[in-house]
Amino acid sequence: PSRTFHGNNRLLTFQITSHYESVNQGKKELPEYFNFASDVLDEWAQLEKDGRKPANPAFWWVNDKGEEVKWSFEEFGSLSKKTANVLSEACGLQRGDRIVAILPRVPEWWLLNVACMRAGIVFFPGTSQLTAKDIFYRLQASKAKCIVTNDTLAPAVESVLSGSQFLKSKLIVGQGSRDGWLNFKELL
């Protein structure tokens, strides 16, 4: 049995489970290649654009001060495409390259995550509680070509950069600038 949820026709757990069971039983074809950004996000954005789906938030973020960021599927898709362009053009990353993101869960974290899916870049998230030693280990073990962090965490990252042989670019998420860093918001 399916029903609407909050007035919208959304798939419920039963429908999702049923879909995957039909794929497992060979009743539905599994795509050879799947990319969440283009196969899901862009499809929902197109439905919004065509007026076949109401513009509900695809992303809704609220911080502890009550500030909100809300994006429709169309906005989220567009921003993730711009972010993918920043990664490939300004940072010089290609499919299969690795990026380490040491950020709190700010909207840019999700943009980077989806942009990496879109561009085929391997996304390594790191908690903002990492020490300089932890950051160095992750940079070396992942062979990351790019690191993304914020103003607060940049000093810890900078303290270990001299030993990182693979890193080619550094992105900072913040309002100001920092020597040797690309500013994500300006590039976006």
Automatic annotation (TrEMBL):
Keywords: ATP-binding, Fatty acid metabolism, Ligase, Lipid metabolism, Nucleotide-binding. InterPro entries: AMP-dep_synth/lig_dom, ANL_N_sf, Mitochondrial_ACSM. GO terms for cellular component: mitochondrial matrix. Its EC number is 6.2.1.2. It holds the Pfam family AMP-binding. Residues 52-174 form the AMP-dependent synthetase/ligase domain. GO terms for biological process: acyl-CoA metabolic process; fatty acid biosynthetic process. It comes from the Eukaryota. The keyword Lipid metabolism applies. GO terms for molecular function: ATP binding; fatty-acyl-CoA synthase activity; medium-chain fatty acid-CoA ligase activity. It catalyses: a medium-chain fatty acid + ATP + CoA = a medium-chain fatty acyl-CoA + AMP + diphosphate. Belongs to the ATP-dependent AMP-binding enzyme family. This is medium-chain acyl-CoA ligase. The lineage of its organism: Eukaryota, Metazoa, Chordata, Craniata, Vertebrata. The gene is Acsm3_2.
